[in-house]
Design goal:
alpha/beta, 24 helices, elongated, 4-stranded antiparallel β-sheet, 2 domains, Rossmann fold, 10% strand, single chain, ABC transporter transmembrane region fold
Length: 608
């Protein structure tokens, strides 16, 4: 039930639609039951049992509602068509048509307004999930599969739409229909209605027993679907490697195994779910059969009920069984959707460890230096950075070099708080970056990553991510600095050319130069270049490196470099190994020292 309460909380902004839905559902439920009651005068005319009432009856209270309706109909029939049975029949048929028309108008109105409620709730759930996904730290996605996250955004939300939100109907529409029908059944025969009430709880117990097993099965199905989406996303992302190593058969076998497991789980869940309809229908027919036996005896043997009233009563009984069947199906849906709701809420309630402090320090820009003070960082149980001290003066450029796994990229991720340090602190002008707002911190940083991260959009929109209000001249200047002008001008629509999924319509070097242009456009005081020229050919690398060198003159820059030839002009070089600083200084001094940096230079020269 806690999952229902959490999901239903999204309905608060749409409460006006709830009130309108309830209002029209009340009218629908009343006319739904009343439509069977007005059948009685028609049957009386057909069976020749209509009474002659010449004086207009008075309404004396709800307890005499059935008698009043019957007498009023008999009075109208007597007044308009006492001697003409066909005219009397047309009169009551007209009343029935009008009653059913009103019933269906109110039914449509109720469904009309609940549509806005249901779709509004789903829209807000998706927005909340997307907001949560983008707000969670990168470490969350190191531990969770993208496919499972996509499954929660898509199939789990759809499951909530078609199953969990049906509880709105369960709580309002169907119970009202049962209440009005039962009230009118009591007006016809109290004994027969009490007889019906004996069997409804029995049917409910049988249905609930089966429904309890649906939630764990549904949870397994949803998780397995997440595995399938993860495998699909992983295959598409690495399709080039899959084909290059002729691994199609391996990936197909893995996918087929996952899909076969999903097939078995889905069959088990759906077959159990499908049992709800025939089971509830059989129980309904059983109750109708008992009613026919007992009610028939009241008509034929005890003669305490006339035939017209009994037929109308059976119509009302059917009017109870239909929503009761709907309630049982909704109960199954809720159990089935509970697992999907739990997976959605699990994400929404995931705690984000990287949050702004309640009263962040107002930041006015870098004035002196950025310092890493005795910084350590653990990824799960692995110590990546250990007691590291480093200061970067304003306006200087610092390069981090070292073998893979030495902690270079980790430091680049700690500065903009993609991760938080495990121990120690990172300060800007003496202020801990955890005391700054994330927006202020990241606004002053431009980042170019080793992997060019571009989006399925135009060149222009990929650049405007950095500065949405940039002018055309600023765009052109950024493109020129990044040495991307020539290839962009050659594209079919220039800046407005769509570059494909992950920019796959561009070459590796073109993608990287576009990433550099994006960082240049932002024009931040601090630049983080993580292997920024790694994807460029030699000619392009030289041109872009010249542009980057000019750009870094007026900025505080942290450069992570694999090609050591690109960092010889930086102000300070830091050599890392196993998360520790083993050497630091200028290029020439480090070469003369003949230590770790010299070995890296020699090794790279040998490789070339």
């Amino acid at each position: 039930m806690k999952y229902f309460l959490h999901i239903i909380g999204f309905a608060r902004p749409y409460k006006k639609y709830i009130f309108l839905n309830v209002f029209f559902n009340i009218l629908y439920a009343f006319f739904n039951a009343f439509s069977f009651l007005v059948l009685m005068p028609m049957f009386e005319v057909l069976f020749g049992e209509n009474r002659q009432i010449t004086s207009r009856p008075d309404f004396t209270g709800v307890e005499n509602f059935k008698t009043y309706v019957s007498d009023r109909m008999s009075y109208e029939v007597t007044r308009f068509a006492a001697d003409d049975p066909q005219r009397a029949l047309l009169l009551v048929i007209g009343l029935i048509v009008v009653t059913f028309l009103l019933k269906n108008i109110f039914n449509y109105a109720a469904l009309f307004f609940i549509t806005f409620l249901r779709n509004g709730v789903l829209k807000d759930i998706r927005n909340a999930l997307y907001s949560k996904f983008t707000g969670l730290p990168l470490s969350h996605y190191n531990e969770n599969k993208k496919g499972d996250i996509m499954a929660r955004m898509t199939s789990d939300v759809i499951e909530v739409q078609y199953s969990f939100l049906s509880i709105l109907e369960l709580l309002i529409r169907e119970p009202l229909s049962i209440i009005f029908a039962m009230a009118m059944m009591f007006t016809i025969s109290v004994k027969l209605t009490f007889f019906v009430l004996i069997f409804i709880p029995v049917a409910g117990i049988v249905i609930s027993r089966i429904g309890k097993s649906l939630q764990p099965k549904s949870d397994k199905v949803q998780r397995q679907l997440g595995e399938i989406l993860s495998k699909t996303e992983e295959t598409l992302t690495g399709l080039r490697i899959v084909k290059a190593f002729k691994a199609e058969a391996i990936f197909k076998d893995s996918f087929y195994a996952l899909n076969q497991h999903f097939f078995r789980l889905s069959n088990s869940l759906i077959n159990r779910y499908n049992l709800s309809s025939p089971l509830s229908e059989f129980l309904g027919v059983a109750v109708i059969g008992i009613l026919l036996w007992y009610g028939g005896s009241l008509v034929l043997i005890e003669q305490k009920l006339n035939a017209a009233a009994f037929i109308a009563y059976m119509g009302l009984a059917y009017g109870v069984l239909t929503p009761a069947k709907g309630i049982s199906k909704s109960y199954y849906n809720i159990k089935k959707g509970n697992a999907a709701a739990a997976r959605i809420i699990e994400i929404l309630e995931t705690e984000n460890p990287i949050v702004d402090t309640k009263n962040p320090v107002k930041f006015e820009g870098l004035k002196q230096e950025i310092c890493l003070n005795n910084v350590s960082f653990n990824y799960e149980e692995e110590l990546v950075i250990e007691h590291l001290d480093l200061c970067i003066k304003k306006g200087t450029s610092v390069a981090l070099v070292g073998p893979s796994g030495s902690g270079k990229t980790t430091i680049a991720n700690l500065l903009p708080r993609f991760y938080d340090v495990s121990d120690g602190s990172i300060t800007i002008d003496g202020v801990d970056i955890r005391d700054l707002s994330k927006d202020d911190l990241r606004n002053m940083m431009g980042i170019v990553t080793q992997d060019s991260i571009l989006f399925h959009d135009s060149v222009r929109n990929n650049l405007l991510i950095a500065k949405p209000d940039a002018t055309e001249d600023q765009l052109r200047e950024a493109v020129k600095i990044a040495n991307a002008k020539d290839f962009i001008d050659e594209l079919p629509q220039g800046l407005d050319t769509i570059i494909g999924d992950q920019g796959n319509k561009l070459s590796g070097g073109q993608k990287q130069r576009l990433s550099i242009a994006r960082a240049v456009l932002k024009n931040p005081p601090i630049m983080i270049l993580d292997e920024a020229t790694s994807a460029l050919d030699t000619a392009s690398e030289r041109m872009v490196q010249d542009a980057l060198t000019k750009m870094m003159k007026n900025r505080t820059s942290l450069v992570i470099a694999h090609r050591l030839s690109t960092i010889q002009s930086v102000d300070h070089i830091v050599v890392l190994s196993n998360g520790k600083i083993v050497e630091q200084g200028k290029h020439d001094a480090l070469i003369a020292k003949n230590g770790a940096y010299k070995k890296l230079i020699d090794l790279q020269s040998f490789e070339q």
